[in-house]
Give the backbone structure.
Amino acid sequence: MFDYHIHSDISFDAHSPAREIVACAAQKGLKEICFTEHMDIDPAGGREEIGLDFARYDAVYQNLMAEGCPIAVKQGVELGAFGDRAEEFAAIARAHDYDFVICSQHFVGTRDPYYPEFYEGKTMHEAYQEYLEEICKTLRVFKEYDVVGHIGYPSKYYRGTEPCKFIYSEFAEIIDEILKQAIADGKGIEINTSSIPKTDDTVATSEMVSRYLELGGEILTVGSDAHWAADAGNYIPQTLKKLQALGAKYVCTFSKRQPIFHSLPDLV
Ligand SMILES: [Zn+2]
Ligand SMILES: [Zn+2]
């Protein structure tokens, strides 16, 4: 069992020291985890804390490696990349020796769908469509990543009265464009389990995963997006079973940006 999306207190919005997360993950029976600390740029300027302290991150990781860990621990990054600053994000990915890079759309224009303001004056459909179009814009120009993070991120935070789950058929054209672009570029998609308590599904949703597989995609990673040590590994066993039921044959880990394919029947 692997968890390929975890934030330690190096990320501006997470709370647990890396060492505590490793201990917790080992106790839960995880075999491998990957830290994916936030590296965001505020498109409106001002929120510098959402960036990453690279030197501190390297020091913490190197310390973990030197002291030894009971499970495999990789060093990754969650880039909040967006089209207008694609070259800066690509330079960051190239400048560091990370194992794994997630490309996560965290902004639509200058707004973050985490905050209620993003949804003001929009139907749920309009808000989700805008978000998906923004991912498309990013993926057309940004290529320095391994998997597309949490396709469907606004469904975690939508507070309106309509059902918050992404329904594939309502956004089929734009979702297909995202998935086809990722596949054409040799990239994977992330199955993020943090939405399960709210939507009873992952982001990307099961429907999106099925479509990715149908279109010929092969690279899937699974992550809890834990921001506390106790959340590492959340919902991952049931998600692996679901992926197998959807027809997925493999789940990937990464080492130095290269995917390693693990047969799903051996993991569930
Ligand atoms: Zn994210
Ligand atoms: Zn995250």
